[in-house]
Automatic annotation (TrEMBL):
Statement: the UniProt record of this protein carries the keyword ATP-binding: no
Name the UniProt record assigns to this protein: PspA/IM30 family protein
Record flagged with keyword NAD: no
Region listing for Disordered, in residue ranges: 230-259
Domain of life: Bacteria
Entry similarity comment: Belongs to the PspA/Vipp/IM30 family.
Signal peptide, first to last residue: none
UniProt keyword annotations, A-Z: Coiled coil
Coiled-coil zones: 44-139
Pfam families: PspA_IM30
């Protein structure tokens, strides 16, 4: 069971890896950072609002304290020491409230400065993450496109290989058919095969044609020999005629008398 559980988790993890898109994960992380930054900004705004409220209360209490001080001075000037004492007593109570509010104001002001600095740092990190996120997304998209192009080229190469094999088979088949056709033509011409269409000749006809062809060749050869022999005879006759004329001239007595 433990092994099956491990196998199941491995297969599930592999399926999740295939289903996961890093770009979506980056966008989700960026969205979460923006939400966190928004919370920090709201915190800064809340602290600043509280600080501003304390400042208003402080200004109001300080105004009341100043007013009581003026009333005490006027009462003392009129000889009403009791009223002056009452005014100063109230003013002392207000001063204690002012002191407490000033302490809270300083605390809130410190918290506001810390949160503002944290918000600025977080903003810088979010901006840097956004830049890196867009760079990674662009790189991932480019790599994904290159992978798809490579896979497409691979598919084309495989298809072209299949086409090449088909062409080679077609050429081999064509050569085989051409060789077969040529062999049949030679067999038909030699008479080894009968032409069912009647266009080829039987063995007797082929033999007669061959004999006739040989006879024609023999006749042509004899004619050429005769021509050659006839030419030689004429030359001999001409040469013989010229020699006989010279001998007759020498033996003719008239020839001698004339000389």
């Amino acid at each position: 069971m433990k092994r099956m559980g491990m196998i199941f988790r491995a297969k599930a993890n592999k399926a999740l890896d295939r289903a996961e898109d890093p770009r979506e994960t980056l966008d989700y992380s960026y969205q979460k950072q923006l939400e966190l930054l928004q919370k920090v900004r709201r915190g800064v705004a809340d602290v600043a609002t509280s600080r501003k409220r304390l400042e208003l209360q402080l200004n109001q209490l300080r105004g009341q304290s100043d007013k009581l001080e003026d009333q005490g001075k006027k009462a003392l000037a009129l000889g009403r020491e009791d009223l002056a004492r009452e005014a100063l007593t109230r003013r002392a109570g207000l001063q204690q409230q002012v002191t407490d509010l000033e302490t809270q104001h300083q605390t809130l002001q410190g918290e506001e400065e810390k949160l503002t600095l944290a918000a600025q740092r977080l903003q810088a990190k979010v901006d840097a993450f956004r830049t890196r996120k867009e760079t990674i997304k662009a790189t991932y998209s480019a790599a994904q496109a290159q992978t798809r192009i490579g896979e497409a080229f691979s598919g084309i190469s495989e298809e072209m290989g299949d086409v090449g094999m088909a062409i080679q088979r077609a050429e081999d088949r064509t050569q085989e058919l051409q060789a077969r056709s040529g062999a049949i033509d030679e067999l038909l011409a030699s008479g080894a095969l009968d032409d069912v269409t009647g266009t080829s000749k039987d063995s007797l006809t082929a033999e007669l044609d061959r004999v006739s062809g040989d006879a024609g060749v023999e006749l042509e050869l004899e004619r050429m020999k005769a021509e050659l022999a006839g030419g030689s005879t004429e030359r001999q006759a001409l040469e013989g005629g010229a020699g006989g004329a010279d001998q007759a001239t020498q033996q003719d007595p008239r020839f001698d008398k004339q000389q």
